[in-house]
Every structure is written in structure tokens, then in C-alpha cells.
Amino acid sequence: MPRWIAIGVVLLSPVTAQYQSNAASPTPEKPCPQPVQYWLELPPTRWPVESLRLGGQRYGMELLLRLLGSEARQPQAYLRQQLAAAKFSLASGAEPSAIAATVAEADQMLQRFATREQMLALGDALEAYTRYRRYTPGCR
Q1: How many C-beta neighbours within 10 Å does residue 53 have?
Q2: Torsions phi, psi of 21, nearest 5?
Q3: CB within 8 A of 23, min separation 6: which ones?
Q4: For residue 136, what pLDDT band results from cuts at 50, 70 and 90?
């Protein structure tokens, strides 16, 4: 019986090698979006950018760390947190097509009056992109 297994391995090895050598090399995929907690735990020196513009206001590393680490009890704070995570993800190369319009709308909403419901809805859409990775095929 061991002789049969050895022959089987010898016979299958060239087939496996041929299959692997003829296979097309995989195309590099874009990074997946990451949630607020990921960016909070990642050292700022490894962030893709040193600052972000959220609703027309520039946030440096120190302000971003405070924002990401704070409890977002108010809709505006929640929206800012989710927008920061989405913008970090986009700056890292995550797929922008499904979320770009939402990001632009969130930036505009932070600069003008918006209802609680509007801010929460946009924050939820951004969180669905970063935390639950909706709208990003291949990211789960």
C-alpha cells in the first residue's frame, strides 16, 4: 500500500505544478475599509495621512486621536467619527465608488444645519462602509 501512495504522489505532482505555473497571477485587491476602532488602535505614525478635513475643519493627529477615542453621544460627534474612519480608509486605498457621494454629503452636512436624523443616517451609512464593509465586494 505505501508503494501505491508514493506512485500517486509522483503522478499528481507534475499535474499540480503545471496547474500552478499556468494559473494567472491574482490581481492585487484594494485594501478593505477599516472602522473607527482600527484607526484608534493603529499608531498615528502608521495612518495614511497626518490630518483630515472634516466638515471644513482640519483635524491634526492629536485632535483625531481625541475624536476617535471619545464617546460619540451626540449625532454630530458620531458623524465626525465615522467620516474620519471612512476618509482614513479611502486614503489607504479602499474602494471609493460606493461611498464617495456619502462622504461628500457628510462633509457638507457638518458645515450647515442638519437634523439629528440626517446626521445619524449618514453616520450609519459610513459605519456600514467601514465597520460592516457593505458596498465593498470581497471584504467581509
Answers
A1: 12
A2: -75, -25
A3: none
A4: confident
Helix (H) or strand (E) holding 93: none
Neighbours of 104 (CB within 10 A): 10
Q: Give pLDDT tens digits for 49-91.
A: 999 999 999 999 999 999 999 998 899 999 999 999 999 999 9
What distances in angstroms separate CA 87 from CA 1, 13, 25, 110, one per listed residue? 60, 47, 30, 14
Supply the pLDDT for residue 140: 66
Give per-residue pLDDT as tens, 11-50.
Answer: 333 333 333 334 443 344 789 999 999 999 999 999 999 9
Cell matching residue 74: 451626540
- Please check whether residue 107 is in contact with residue 83, taking contact to mean a CB–CB distance below 8 angstroms: yes
Burial class (CB in 10 A: 0-12, 13-18, 19+), 119: buried
Encode burial over 79-91: b for 16+ CB neighbours within 10 A, e otherwise: bbbbbbbbbbbbe
- The residues that bridge with 58 in the sheet, in sequence order, are 53
- Are 81 and 75 spatial neighbours (Cβ–Cβ below 8 Å)? no
